[in-house]
Amino acid sequence: MKRFTLLQFSLWLLALCAGIIANVMVFHSYSVEKQEHMQVSLQRYLDSHPQITVTDAPAMAEQLFATMNLKNLWLRDAEGEVLANKTHRQNSALLSQVAQSQFNSVRSQYAVSSNGELRIEFIADLDDVAKTFEVGLLYFVLVISLLALLPIASLKTAFVGYRRHVADMISAIIDQFVSNGVVPDTSSRAFSDDSQKQRLASQISPALNRLSTYLGSQLDNIASSAVEIKKEAYKDVVTELGNRNMFVEYYERHIEHVQGDCFGCIALVRGTELQHINQRSGYQQGDEYIRSIAEMLSAVVGSYRGSSVFRLNSSDFAVVLPNIPLKEAERFANNVQSKLNQYQKIHDLTSVAYTGIVSYEQNKPLGELLANVDVAMNIAQSKQNNAWHIQRQEDMSASSNQGSQNWRKMINDLLDKQSVTLVIQAIMPLGKSNNAYSEIQARFRDEEEHILPTSSFMAMADQLGKSVELDQMIIEHAFRAMKSKNLNAQYFGLNVSAASAHDDKFVIWLERRLMKEGELAARLIFEISELGLQQNIGASKRFITMLHRAGARITVEKFGVGLTSFKFFRELKPDFIKMDASYTRGLEDDKNNQYFMRLMVDLAHRIGVKVFAEGVESQEEKHIIEQLCLDGAQGYYIEKPREL
Questions:
Q1: Strand 576-579 with 553-559, pairing
Q2: More confident residue, 609 or 113
Q3: Would you say the pTM of this structure is higher than 0.70?
Q4: Which CATH number does 418-643 carry?
Q5: Which architecture, in CATH terms, is 244-406?
Q6: 446-479 as b/e, with b when 16 or more CB fall inside 10 Å?
């Protein structure tokens, strides 16, 4: 459009110049002819009046100026002296001025009498003619301007309409592509009623097809990237197995909402030694322990078509065995137990893992299935090392009671025999701080002197309502050990469950024991988890107030896992907080954890609370912790747990 407008303007300008030149040339020719005619007429006049003398000059000038169209008139004698003259005072027309300047069109003309005594000099008056030419030139300009503007206006209108047609056509192409996934060809109904659309479509369709191909490839790339991202998000970092999210999605897609018949077994394998290995040998060995279990499970399920292994949490694995009856699941469990026994023997462990198995069928809710397999797990843990148990639907109620009864009997036996082993692990003071102590931890053994998994034991004790009695037994043993070994110059930490801390009878009992053992109370720091404190804030505050009243102190352990605010800690007024081990692992490479830990240290110090780190396993982690101004560090690098 711009190029056409520029072309039209150029043609208009060229035509205008040509018109002006032509008009001036015609006016020039007319002027020359007119002046020649007037000269001939005056010469004839003089020739026809030979009797005129110089004395008649004024009268003749008046007569000639009145009868002829003259602008200037001079009558001269033979010597050139002016005898008479006449002149019009009006200005010349513009065209006359242009012609005069370019061609000298209007100039003086002469006529001489036959005797040479009288000479007439004149300039013709052509202003009226020039104005007529000017009007004609104006009309010419208007006409060529109109001829130049009309195509531009009509083209713009046509362009708008054509653009609308193109937009409609492209819209039709895109609509059909969106609906059918293909670009319509030029013979489709979208273009059959318009030959111009067909031609345009034939030109545009190849480009749109290329665009369609490109978009298709981009969508494929995006889908492929999304799958890869999803795999990474659903992958466990330590074992590279699918995590809990992938297990839930797998169950919903392939079991719960699958079309047609569906059956099989799900096994829950729990590595019960993880916490013990973490505390004894460090988290790196704990990761190696978890990887070993994953490798053993993957090796066993490799012979079962369509089977899958997932890591649900830190120590639990789920194994899906599709189209496998319970009888075949027993063979699977025996194979797993055999590998676990071999690993236990090689690494000199008291146990490795336990297995619970249940069957599933279509439309079985996952929550119910996990509850059933957890019952099977509890029963397996009450048997021999690395045992397994299959939970059948018809035996669900009886099996659940059986598992609970086995654990209840085991815990009651330990309480009756007062059987507990105490180990300690020191917290090293950092910087200028001297506020550190050694944490006392409990270990339990069964009738065959095998160490029981501490986390499972404490969880079942809490579930069976035995936490208070268990904590009382541990505290009594700690008091006796401190007095018998004459550990008067040391400070010790004791773990207390949330159930005990929130139990009024236990609080009264503990206060009496601390009042009775006044010297010991001043050297005791009781540890309770952050999540445990949150369960009952009022009871937690009463428990901490009692400890302070008795001269003891309190540490909030596993800090950073819950959502407790520092306003809450200001009200409870703990003495120490112990950062959860998840913030310490790989601290030297994790800037986010470093920032969070430094922020916690600054806030805690402002309210007078000391901050410890647990799970320290390397010199690099210890160095970063020192730079972050923590008050103490605990972990395998600092000291391994040892018997009290």
A1: parallel
A2: 609
A3: no
A4: 3.20.20.450
A5: 2-Layer Sandwich (3.30)
A6: beeeebbbbbbbbebbbeeebbbbbbbbbbebbb
